[in-house]
Amino acid sequence: MESTNDFLTKLHDKQQKDEQNRKRQGKNNPSEKLPTNRNK
Q: Residue spans with biased composition (Basic and acidic residues) (predicted)?
């Protein structure tokens, strides 16, 4: 069993990653998506 502090740390980390993913994927709105770099 993990401590409450460890659980909250993981939870906040997951929420932050979810928010970043929502920004990258545009929340199902293609016009809000970040541009992809196709020609490297």
A: 9-22
